[in-house]
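User: My collaborator sent over this chain with a note saying "see what the structure looks like." That's all I know about it. Can you take a look?
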Amino acid sequence: MAALNDLKNQAGYAQNTHYMDKLTGREIEILRLAANGATDEEIALTFHLGPDWVHAHLSNILFKMNVSTREQAVARARQDGIMQGKLPMATSSSPVFG
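Assistant: Without extra context I'll predict from the sequence alone. Here is the result:
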């Protein structure tokens, strides 16, 4: 796995890949809940974890999507079809693609 990631980095894959290739299944689930208006606390209850864990995931989502706010992330995800279920749902934190 490390060798594959090294090859991707050498080829410039990480810099040129669309954000959907970078989001984990769990991050997509969190983004969908956020799009439905769920608070960090409500999302945390859904996954039986603390709000700090959710906040960390949301921060990762914003970084990967290159946006500054939750609202921008939701708007972009809706525009790109994530909210319509065009991407597979994953139950682990492993990447959806790859």
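A starting point for your reply to your collaborator: Residues 7-17, 86-98 have pLDDT under 50 and may be disordered.
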